Amino acid sequence: MKNLQNKLFTLLFIVLTFPNLGAAQGNSPAQLRFEVNRIIPYVLITKEALNEANRLTDLDPHYKPSWIKEFISVEILTTYQGEMLKSVSKNDILSQEQKDRMNRADAGTSISVKVKYIPENTLTQNDPKEFDFTFTVDPENKAEYPGGQQQLIKYLQEKAIDKIPATSFTNYDLLTVKFTISEEGAIINAHIFGSEYQTSKDEKIDKLLLETIQNMPSWKPAAYADGTKVKQEFVLTVGNMESCVINLLNIQRAE
């Protein structure tokens, strides 16, 4: 009986002294999470949506009619066969000329909208205001890694992710590498986003991920139906996808 009591006392001492001993055993580190997503422009519109647009809200969902008491003018600048064209309407209903010119705009060129208006407020002196935005019609064919998304994931896994201990990222740590696919499919402008406050805490890991992106094979560039090729921006995220930094990237993550 005395031996049994001694054993129980010893076991109790171990449990109280090393409370995490049982939890640490048998729990392998979680797999390091990573994603590659396209960076979405502030205003994104497809060719189909542009064809059906009738009002400013169809072009820019951020625009709120409640801001405006009275319109002064709505100017839209487009490029057609290399020439800049301006078309003007009196309110947020797009004129036929504006719609036609936007739909005929040269592929890959920016369309600029400038709105002059009297704001809706209670100020005695209600001065005219302006707001503007620019957008480019989204190309029908997105930039693509050779072999598709699964081959991209495989490349990143083999060249970088499998070489990084999952424990390198803790809590809400997130490393983001932004890069651009050029009109020729080359990887350009690769850099660690927000490096002043978001890194892996290990320069070797930062360098590994950055070089892995820089050394990717050429992609198939984004292109319009007429064959015009354009740049597209992407970002590699590694770590905790619940980090608030995700909200700064303007990406549309896959469900």
UniProtKB/TrEMBL annotation:
Extent of the signal sequence: 1-23
UniProt KW keywords: Signal
Protein name according to UniProt: TonB family protein
